Amino acid sequence: MSLFSKKKPSDFYPDWYHEEAPKDSYRSILKWGSPTEFKAPNRKLYKLMKETFDMTDDDFKVKQEMGLEKVDFDMPPKLDEKHIAKFREILGEENVKTDNYTRLSVAYGKTMVDLMRLRKHIVENLPDVVLYPGCREDIIKIVEYCNEEKIPVYVYGGGSSVTRGVEPVCGGVTLDMRPRFNKVIKFSERNQTITVEAGMSGPKLEEILNNAVSLFGAKRAYTCGHFPQSFEYSSVGGWTVTRGAGQNSTYYGKIEDIVISQEYVTPVGIIKSDECPRNATGPSIDQIMMGSEGTFGVLTHVTLRFFKYMPENRCRFSFVFKDWDSGVNAVREIMQGEFGFPSAFRLSDPEETSVGFRLYGVADTPIDSLLKLRGYEDGKRVLLLGFTEGEKAFSKNVFRQIWKICHNYGAMYTTGLVTKGWEKGRFNDPYLREDMGDYGLMLDTLECSVNWDNFMEVYENVRRYCKSRPNTICMTHMSHFYPQGANLYFIFEAKMSDLQEYLDYQYGIMDNIQKYGASMSHHHGIGKMTAPWLEAQIGHNEMEVYRALKRHFDPNNIMNPGGTLGLDLPEDKRRDFITKK
Amino acid sequence: MSLFSKKKPSDFYPDWYHEEAPKDSYRSILKWGSPTEFKAPNRKLYKLMKETFDMTDDDFKVKQEMGLEKVDFDMPPKLDEKHIAKFREILGEENVKTDNYTRLSVAYGKTMVDLMRLRKHIVENLPDVVLYPGCREDIIKIVEYCNEEKIPVYVYGGGSSVTRGVEPVCGGVTLDMRPRFNKVIKFSERNQTITVEAGMSGPKLEEILNNAVSLFGAKRAYTCGHFPQSFEYSSVGGWTVTRGAGQNSTYYGKIEDIVISQEYVTPVGIIKSDECPRNATGPSIDQIMMGSEGTFGVLTHVTLRFFKYMPENRCRFSFVFKDWDSGVNAVREIMQGEFGFPSAFRLSDPEETSVGFRLYGVADTPIDSLLKLRGYEDGKRVLLLGFTEGEKAFSKNVFRQIWKICHNYGAMYTTGLVTKGWEKGRFNDPYLREDMGDYGLMLDTLECSVNWDNFMEVYENVRRYCKSRPNTICMTHMSHFYPQGANLYFIFEAKMSDLQEYLDYQYGIMDNIQKYGASMSHHHGIGKMTAPWLEAQIGHNEMEVYRALKRHFDPNNIMNPGGTLGLDLPEDKRRDFITKK
């Protein structure tokens, strides 16, 4: 590659850093996913970035703030040694860690602010001690002790939070749930449910269900149905407490549709919901606890539905519409068609379609030429892709109905290959961020929930704000669809490495999401990042309900304290935004 | 008919009382539904009852406790006149009533205990005054005033509660929501949602949606999808606060799947959820309020999803299996088949099948003979009936898949006619109770929620208890299905007119439902009737969550006080039952 670029200077392609990060370095923490997996912007994206960001090849010759340095700072644990001794007594010596690297490695999630801080060696918040519980009893003892001693308790699952949800802003302990609290407790093929400890990782759960025949003597293979983009580095506990959604949620449902029951250890005792599929026995305990993001207690066990693993029944499709309006009307009609829902389903706006065609290898192919010939113009046309699932005839019929509706809205069928291209990148796009960050480029996303009535206004105005910054890419898509609305995703890319500049831009986007009536999150959750907007969105009286629950479960405010969900956010930190409604 | 019975004395058929109840009589209150609609047990059911209850024609010659007398009792309102004056000031003279008949007519629901008490002229609990609010502002003023003055507030919707949910055990005011608080607030065809006032009746909502073209200029007709047996005398508010389910819930979902947003007036202010289809913005406000059964506040507005009205796509079916096990395995496989769900869906156990065949006119027909010939024996065989809905090809495919699975489990297809027979009676079966009650016969139901793992144990043991009483019919069916379980319905009929005898029997059934691990209700709710069992079912810590919410919303305990949901139930009234789990 570098040989080639020497010969043709105009074909310069950056020398991306694709080496395992040095041991104990900041980069080893900020890096997404596998230490040995990488993903560079391809040549077409590279070209687009240069054009859009007004950059030259020279700007990609020197890397910056790579975080290759060994983690090193002077912030000794503030927690009294007697407490640490107590934790050692509960968990054993080896399951209590206080070294700097371990503490920093569970302090941040994976939002842009986290990555930027790590690149800049900004260590703001740390747990005093990292604990590795191995069973429910460990967690009960830890929560009881911390409640007595008023020690803050944070929980770290997969570490993929993009809302500063895991950040221990008040110090104290962080429970790292993955290493030792990840077992299967119960598998019921008859109920089609599996009960697991909260530290179970997404891929491990899927592997277990795929192998149910050999592991449990089941009749067939199953799937969990929940595949967020962060899938490979996410945990069942994290899915649940944040109200997450997988990329196939249009068919399988959001995590609240998949979770059948939960168990939490709270300062006032264990909370456990039953395993009946539905009840009329008062408010839903499950729905009170889901979305509490660690502020009411520690989620220990989750019983999840699972589904038949039938990839052979998938029908992949993609369609290109002449314009955004046609695409939006078509997906709404599909979701209201009462023939079942597709599984993966994604409608990209003109800008994302344009970028996507380069990324998925459609641009400049015969399909692209044909599209242009037929009047599907770049910059106006929009791409719908996805696949159907389920029982064979069901899946085929959903495909057929989608085809019919898209055809009625003037779409051109562009085969299932585009979807295959998207599938290849669906879990590894986050790897792009390291390579981009090395050249001072920011890539981040925000998402919100809309209904069909307010969707277009939210789309237009948030996008207008995003694009008001020069030299900025703003790609928008809808995914996670419902008959009544959808999730709306904004992906923005720019040359930006100043933390405050980034935050100002991000806050502006969130202000606009709120101003035009969207819900602040469909599946990322609130954490500490979006917390200042929560009260203005859900309302003061509604926020007081959350605070009443918080006082009940956690009278000493030890569970994920410091602003999570806006529960203990000082009034001057709450965005006083007047929504348009 | 009576001429015929004179000729052939063995064909005696009772002279059912099919006249409009006298004005202002107890019977006019206890009678189900329309004053001029009646339904007598048909001759086959009459014969079965005589056999089972060990009765003769002579027992059906004299009626008892018919409640024909004019409502008359001496329980003047206890509320100070100044309060009543205040309500008159808020609502106007004509919307405040204190006469005995009006007060009694909103005091009870329609459970057996209610009907028995009315037949016996037992007036235990009454509101002091009945109010007819006409708008949200009326309700705000009433709740504010009652909260200041600590006056209990009860809400009466359709009046079909079977849990003593509406009973004003502490006196005070009852808001009768139907007459004046029943308007459409918003219709959005794009969102497929309608916002209505809580007093809107089921049939009116359905009529409005069926006529959306002429009423709102919509493109087509729609349906609400929610048809509880009480449909004709139910209200949207009642559906919502009790977590109700319609008979077609397997396809359309329970009310919590249909409700998109709600607004409540509580003593601490208005609580309103947003109209986005899904959120990740903390615990679900909707799911905290749904199931609160009037104990947190007054539900004023509900935004519901609606669906395309496509009765032409229905495929009706019925199948007979050789035994209960085959039927149960088949329905589980259907629900886990991932081809979509049927709409109406009902699997009757051997006893209900036997009775049902008489009621739906199958017994002694050629179908019956053929069944017997092929080894589907009465007393063992079970009936599955229902229909599919949705888009045409979807509906057909669900039908085809059901057919395939039933066939694999050895079922015989018995056409859609049986379903048609069931549909005729689906909303008017409750009318049977007046005719039966006139001869001292009790007909009541209890329902619970099970998962597939505990279903058979619950079924066998609850049924064993029911049948331990001699001369008692106990029919059981499953309806409202999920991939993880179902709702289990027990219908019991016996000669029983003593209130205490009835209560002892009912309590025994509920003890057994709880003992074998079912959830105490799938869709009737808890009310005051099931409240003593709630804490043992959901657990003490979970109950304390409800109590914390109650303290928050209603610090003066004015909202539906007196044991509803077990919130202010004295400890000695809580059933101290050790569940088997």
Can you lay out the helices and strands and say which pair or pack?
2 copies of one chain form a homodimer.
Chain A lengths: L1 H6 L18 H5 L12 H11 L27 H11 L4 E2 L2 H6 L6 H8 L9 E3 L4 H14 L3 E4 L16 E4 L7 E5 L4 E5 L4 H9 L1 H5 L5 E2 L12 H6 L7 H4 L2 H4 E8 L2 E4 L12 H5 L8 E8 L1 E2 L6 E7 L2 H12 L8 E5 L1 H10 L6 H8 L8 E7 L3 H17 L3 E2 L3 H9 L6 H6 L3 E11 H17 L3 E11 L2 E11 L3 H17 L15 H8 L1 H14 L28
Parallel strand pairs in A: 2-4, 3-4
Antiparallel strand pairs in A: 1-2, 5-6, 6-10, 7-11, 8-9, 8-10, 12-14, 12-15, 13-14, 13-17, 16-18, 17-18
Helix pairs in contact in A: 14-17, 20-21, 22-23
Can you describe what's shown?
The structure is a homodimer. Chain A is an alpha+beta fold and about 575 residues long. Chain A has 23 helices and 18 strands. In chain A, the strands form four sheets. In chain A, strands 15-12-14-13-17-18-16 form a seven-stranded antiparallel sheet, with helices on both faces. In chain A, strand 8 (about 260-265) and strand 9 (about 270) form a beta hairpin. In chain A, helix 14 (about 325-335) runs antiparallel to helix 17 and helix 22 packs across helix 23 (about 540-555). Chain A is globular, with a radius of gyration of 24 Å. Mean pLDDT of chain A is about 95; it is low at about 1-5. The interface between A and B is large, with 93 and 93 residues.
